[in-house]
């Protein structure tokens, strides 16, 4: 199996960290090929005994099969409830089985301990296994791989891992075409203030309180109505607060003539397998669950996610939405076309957390990758991350920019309508006149979306050229913005105008202020980039209006 370039880079960084910095954590979201990279990292680590820990039966067999595709020469075996065999090469072990004292007593010394879904390392079962591995071999190296490191206890993470070797962002995967784009709608049912008062436990919000707020027939009716309108033909996974809430939602879908089923932790293994098989084979369209499908479940044909509960951790939200972002393999699902994923958020999670990425890359770092130490959890992390992957500490630069964005009301323009949860564009879009005009400049080109008479007009042009180009006319705002963004990607200069460039947030120049007819007092808060967009509109307004009025 040939790895993608980004996967090769991930494996290199992980193994460099293991040999040079100690026990390390690699962060890779759903769709990155985490199991493939984990397997390649084990192979690259060299000879010696390895144990790979998984917390679910299906992952044991799945990870072993993937590893054998990467390295067919190294012997492997399984240590689980129905088969307890230690391999001289790589053993794939079930945590719940191995953590028992009588089983730990049979554990051989190992050179490498790999923890899949490493955010679970805070659990007592993992702690016992790690301690035993260190007792048998004080030099054992430990590698953890996860999509959501923030869900573990900070102290427990630091007790096992000293650094984060690499962080692959969801944005990277979408831009590379490895995942589909999410389209998120935040639906207001008038519950935001009530949900804001819900108590938080160590792990999440108090779901009994959430159930009391959201498990109401009026809310569920609204859920089904919004789903019919925005995603009625799509295969859907719904996340609910409690089993009773999920049962009511499932029944409501069935009563509405929609084939729906439910999975939760109280079901027998047989009933859960049946529900998953029926869903995967399209016998049901909507699968409602409670804390079962959050991680490790992959069904490529899912193209809608319903969030019927809030998420206290951003990482939990990322995992839930990630269930719908996988691309469809045409060989496995011939005739199925999936270009995006609709996310209907009834719990306001996206307004709380703001996006899917666990980090924001500020500026590319040239040469050898550099690191910094998180002041909160003391974990060594890549220099380019703006949010600590281990504890979600926000580094100063991002905190300042987030505050500026809040003050500008960037998110308010989309609140309760459609929220672009990822700033997928490499360019920064600015809105004027209550969102009537949304415009971006890419140095060598510009584009805007104008609302007029119930239509969304995407219009652009190249720098130095007169006139304007009509890109698209549509009723759908997202489609208009997407087509305008595609135009900029094709004709603009991403390197000079990338939204992370520092010059974008600098104060406007004296020349810009003179051209806009502003003085220093009236330009307070204006950035150089927003001034650029204002001038682009000023110079192109008559051409843009001419295009709109000529249609």
Explain briefly what this protein structure is:
By secondary structure, the protein is α/β, with parallel strands linked by helices. The chain has three domains: 5-169, Rossmann fold (3-Layer(aba) Sandwich); 178-353, P-loop containing nucleotide triphosphate hydrolases (Rossmann fold); 430-549, no CATH class. Helix content is 37%, strand content 19%.
Sheet with most strands: strand arrangement: 4-3-5-2-6-7-1-8
What is the CA–CA distance across the termini? 52 Å
Q: What is the CATH T-level topology of the largest domain?
A: Rossmann fold
Return the domain count: 3
Residue runs with pLDDT of under 50 for 5 or more positions: 358-368, 397-402, 408-422
CATH architecture of the largest domain: 3-Layer(aba) Sandwich
Q: Please provide the count of β strands.
A: 21
Name the CATH homologous superfamily of the largest domain: P-loop containing nucleotide triphosphate hydrolases
Q: What coarse outline follows from CA principal-axis ratios?
A: globular
SSE class: alpha/beta
Q: Round the Cα radius of gyration to an integer and report it.
A: 25 Å
How much helix, percentage-wise, in residues? 25-40%
């Amino acid at each position: 199996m040939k790895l993608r370039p980004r996967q090769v880079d991930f494996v290199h960084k992980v193994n460099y960290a293991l040999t040079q910095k100690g026990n390390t954590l690699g962060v890779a979201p759903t769709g990155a090929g985490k199991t493939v990279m984990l397997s390649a990292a084990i192979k690259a680590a060299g000879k010696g005994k390895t144990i790979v820990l998984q917390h679910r039966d299906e992952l044991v067999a799945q990870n072993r099969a993937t590893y054998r595709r990467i390295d067919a020469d190294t012997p492997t075996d399984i240590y689980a409830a129905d088969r307890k065999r230690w391999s001289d090469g790589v053993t794939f072990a079930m945590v719940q089985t191995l953590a028992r004292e009588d089983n730990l007593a049979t554990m051989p010394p190992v050179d490498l301990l790999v923890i899949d879904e490493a955010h679970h390392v805070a659990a007592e079962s993992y702690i016992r296994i790690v301690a035993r591995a260190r007792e048998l071999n004080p030099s054992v190296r430990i590698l953890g791989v996860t999509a959501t490191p923030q869900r573990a206890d900070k102290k427990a993470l630091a007790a096992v891992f000293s650094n984060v070797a690499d962080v692959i962002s969801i944005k990277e995967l979408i831009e590379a075409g490895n995942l589909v784009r999410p389209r998120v709608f935040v639906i207001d049912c008038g519950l935001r203030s009530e949900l804001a008062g819900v108590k938080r436990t160590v792990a999440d919000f108090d779901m009994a309180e959430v159930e009391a707020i959201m498990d109401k027939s009026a809310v569920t009716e609204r859920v089904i109505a919004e789903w019919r309108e925005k995603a009625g033909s799509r295969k859907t996974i719904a996340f609910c607060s409690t089993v009773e809430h999920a049962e009511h939602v499932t029944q409501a879908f069935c009563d509405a003539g929609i084939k729906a089923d439910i999975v939760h932790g109280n079901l027998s293994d047989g009933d859960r397998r049946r529900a998953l098989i029926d869903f995967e084979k399209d016998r049901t369209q909507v699968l409602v669950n409670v804390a079962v499908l959050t991680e490790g479940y992959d069904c490529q044909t899912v193209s809608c996610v319903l969030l019927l509960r809030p998420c206290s951790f951003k990482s939990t939200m990322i995992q839930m939405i990630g269930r719908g972002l996988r691309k469809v393999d045409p060989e496995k699902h011939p005739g199925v076309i999936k270009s995006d994923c609709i996310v209907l958020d009834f719990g306001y999670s996206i307004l709380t957390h703001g996006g899917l990425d666990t980090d924001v890359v500020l500026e590319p770092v040239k040469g050898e990758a550099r690191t910094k130490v998180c002041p909160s959890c003391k974990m060594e992390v890549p220099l380019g991350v703006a949010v600590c992957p281990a504890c979600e500490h926000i580094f100063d630069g991002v905190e300042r920019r987030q505050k500026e964005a809040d003050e500008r009301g960037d998110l308010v323009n989309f609140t309760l309508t459609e929220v672009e949860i990822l700033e997928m564009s490499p360019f920064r879009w600015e809105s004027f006149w209550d969102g009537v005009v949304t415009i971006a400049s890419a140095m060598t080109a510009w584009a805007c979306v104008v609302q007029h008479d119930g239509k969304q007009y995407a219009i652009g042009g190249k720098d130095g050229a007169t006139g304007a180009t009509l890109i698209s006319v549509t009723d759908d705002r997202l489609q208009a913005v997407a087509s305008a963004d595609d135009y900029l990607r094709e004709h603009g200069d991403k390197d000079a105008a990338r939204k992370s460039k520092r010059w974008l947030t600098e104060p406007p120049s004296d020349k810009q202020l003179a051209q806009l007819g502003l003085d220093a007092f009236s330009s307070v808060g204006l950035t150089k980039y927003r001034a650029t967009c204002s001038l682009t509109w000023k110079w192109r307004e008559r051409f843009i209006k001419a295009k709109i009025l000529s249609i």
